[in-house]
Design a protein that fits this description.
heterodimer; A: 313 residues; alpha/beta; seven-stranded parallel β-sheet; five-stranded parallel β-sheet; B: 249 residues; nine-stranded mixed β-sheet; 7 helices; 13 strands; 29% helix; 31% strand; globular
């Protein structure tokens, strides 16, 4: 039976993690449909229809579906669920918000943030901040699953042109209202999909010092992340937090600056291809996972590194 | 308004856990256990609502083995009024926990239920959303601010791109993020007083809830270990390695 992927988007563009979820869904079922819902999101449905492996796009547009409020999206998923064996979403803030509500309405357990599809009913998922991987078999007839994006390659747009089916839907639970979004301003690449991530920790000492990382990131087209300590201290916005309860990243290059390397931070970045650490404490746990480490003062090393990399180009 | 807060006893966040050598699970015998850090924030939020006059009573609930009562005593010591322990040795999945909480909520009829956004052991991030779905209540997840106004709950959520503000009709379910508050420590006199506060113990059977797991854990494996890296002495060497790494793409 088919798999239905709930698309995550901002009304204009598909969020990239949806593509990783589509790849995971294709490992569960030969037939993958994608549900695009919102108040005005036809452009997202068009974008989705060109993705390889998507057989059909379902488009539901209604005022009540604006901002994917869980109270209004979950009943729509339940309504559609009878045709699907798998209900899948990327483990983004929207996916994590909506999917468990739908699972409960379907009376099934949800399998959160899978890192691999082992078979039709068996999946791998990290537990204990990624310090163990559990292989779990679901006994539920319907599988409700969120997908950890960094563990699956993104499905690409190709020559395909899947049909877009409009669904009439006007359900509104009427128990919650969207007031507004405050989006962090930034012209750097998206943290979760960037090829290079440069993160700062408590060792940065101030919000101003993060400017050093911005300069380095600028030259490398990198995203800037942060540890929880740096966010709590007000050095960086909370949506830049990398870790167990922040964002999970796996770039080609991760540069940890002034980050000690707590378990909770490592959970969000230890799948990076290369990890570089700059820290003045030679005993910092971050050096146990770093491929390349430099013990030194970041306030000297980072500007020097920025200059060296600029010179190399 | 009555506030219910759900807490879970988990392996302390500072413990480096080990996978058992037979790969049947994680070895949690003799390791330090604590309240789930997110639940600690939820308890603090409930107590602050009471201190602000918004809440009249704070009831803490935990589901788990005998020792979960210690976690509840901790919640009582920082200001919860009474506690309910749903005692079971079954490894309950979030769906079962949500059903047990629904049964408790039907008895207690709170206006607001607070939970942590996720437990640091199973890392599921499901229970609050499932509970809201089962009850048909509004939900606000990953809250970094909660304000009661005109009988509604204004909630600020931590989302991928920044923050989002919602208005929820009560009764509501809110799950909290670490950024919501700084939990207080219990004072010794309050720890002593907490021993005299009411703590009811009930069973899943008494609540009429089937807690049988839907999933089977076939195996628990340690993650792949990274190869030991090397330290370089100069920024020049570091730059050369980084240049190679970025050119590899």
């Amino acid at each position: 039976m088919a798999a239905l992927v709930l698309a995550d988007h901002d009304g204009v563009q598909l969020y990239p993690a949806t593509r990783n979820a589509i790849t995971a869904a294709r490992q569960m079922s030969d037939t993958v449909h994608v549900l695009v819902c919102g108040d005005a999101c036809a452009s997202v449905a068009d974008e989705t229809s060109s993705i390889d492996g998507v057989a059909k796009v379902l488009l539901a547009q209604a005022a009540s579906l604006k901002e994917l409020l869980a109270e209004n999206v979950a009943p729509l998923l339940v309504e559609l669920a009878s045709d699907y064996a798998y209900i899948v979403a990327p483990a983004t803030s929207n996916g994590k918000n909506v999917l468990p509500r739908a699972a409960a309405l379907l009376d099934v357990s949800q399998i959160s943030e899978i890192s691999a599809v082992i078979s039709a009913d068996t999946f791998e998922r990290p537990i204990y901040a990624g310090n163990a991987n559990a292989i779990v078999r679901s006994g539920d007839a319907k599988k409700v699953i969120t997908v950890r994006a960094t563990k699956f390659v993104p499905a690409r747009s190709g020559a395909s042109n899947a049909p877009v089916h409009e669904i009439a839907w006007n359900g509104d639970a009427g128990v919650s209202a969207f007031i507004g979004n405050r989006v962090s301003a930034g012209d750097r690449p998206d943290l979760t999909t960037a090829a290079v991530v440069i993160s700062g920790g408590r060792g940065m000492g101030s919000k101003e010092a993060f400017g050093l990382l911005d300069s380095l990131a600028q030259g490398m087209n990198a995203a800037v992340g942060a540890s929880r300590a740096a966010v709590d201290a007000g050095f960086a916005p909370s949506d830049t937090q990398v870790g167990q309860t922040g964002k999970v990243v796996a770039p080609g290059l991760y540069v940890a600056v002034g980050i000690s390397g707590a378990i909770q931070h490592l959970a969000g970045m230890k799948d990076s291809k290369m990890i570089v650490a700059i820290n003045k404490d030679a005993e910092a746990p971050i050096f146990q996972v770093a491929d390349i480490g430099l013990v030194g003062d970041l306030f000297e090393a980072v500007p020097e590194l920025t200059a060296a990399l600029a010179h190399a180009r | 308004m009555k506030v219910l807060v759900a807490v879970k006893r988990v392996v302390d966040f500072n413990v480096n856990i080990r996978v058992k050598s037979d790969h049947t699970g994680v070895d949690i015998a003799n390791v330090k256990m604590s309240i789930n850090p997110f639940d600690e924030v939820a308890v603090e939020a409930a107590v602050r609502l009471k201190e602000a006059g918004s809440a009249t009573e704070v009831v803490a609930v935990s589901i788990g083995p005998d020792k979960a009562s210690e976690t509840l005593r901790g919640a009582l010591a920082v200001g919860a009024d009474r506690a309910i322990h749903v005692q079971t040795d079954v490894q309950t999945e979030p769906l079962a926990v949500a059903k047990l909480l629904r049964a408790v909520i039907e008895r207690e009829t709170p206006s607001l239920v607070l939970l942590g956004k996720q437990a640091i052991d199973d890392d599921c991030n499901q229970t609050g959303q499932m509970l809201a779905g089962l009850l048909g209540w509004s939900q606000g997840t990953s809250a970094s601010a909660l304000v009661m106004s005109d009988g509604k709950l204004r909630i600020t959520r931590e989302v991928d791109a920044g923050t989002q503000e919602l208005e929820l009709v009560l009764p509501a379910i809110a799950t909290v993020d670490l950024r919501l508050n700084e939990p207080r420590h219990a004072s010794l006199p309050n720890i002593m007083k907490a021993k005299k506060k009411p703590l009811d113990v009930i069973t899943p059977d008494a609540l009429g809830v089937d807690v049988a797991p839907r999933m089977t854990i076939l195996e628990v494996r340690p993650p792949l270990q990274r190869q030991a890296g090397k330290k370089v002495a100069t920024v020049g060497e570091l730059a050369a390695h980084m240049k190679l790494a970025t050119e590899a793409h």
